[in-house]
Amino acid sequence: MINADVYSKFKISEKSFIEISGRKSITDLVKTPTYKEYYNKVFQNTSITNFSSNQNIDYLGDEKFNFYDITAKYSQQIG
Fold first, then answer.
1. Structural domains counted in the chain
2. Phi and psi angles of residue 42, each rounded to the nearest 5 degrees, phi first
3. Burial of residue 27, with CB atoms counted within 10 A of its CB: 0-12 exposed, 13-18 middle, 19 or more buried
4. How far apart are CA 43 and CA 63, in angstroms?
5. Which residues neighbour 28 within 8 Å (Cβ) at sequence distance 6 or greater?
6. 29 has which bridge partners?
7. How far is CA 1 from CA 50, 55, 79, in A?
8. Across-strand partners of 25?
9. What's the predicted TM-score (pTM) here?
10. Residue range(s) defining the domain that contains residue 15
11. Nearest Cα residue to 65 out of 45, 39, 32, 34
């Protein structure tokens, strides 16, 4: 429950087709409980070290991580 998906398949001929799919995170619209659990798990032990002063700085994060991907596939039956 952290992303939305789209999938389409277009037949070009009797032996070929194109598939197009996409995915995008919905975390910029809705902060679901699943997102909050992922976020806490990813950043649970994260600290930043300032080497010039040799101090650890707690990472608070800005709770902004998004993703998207798009895939296209062409298939043809040979023979």
1. 1
2. -65, -40
3. buried
4. 10
5. 64, 66
6. none
7. 36, 37, 42
8. 3
9. 0.59
10. 3-76
11. 39
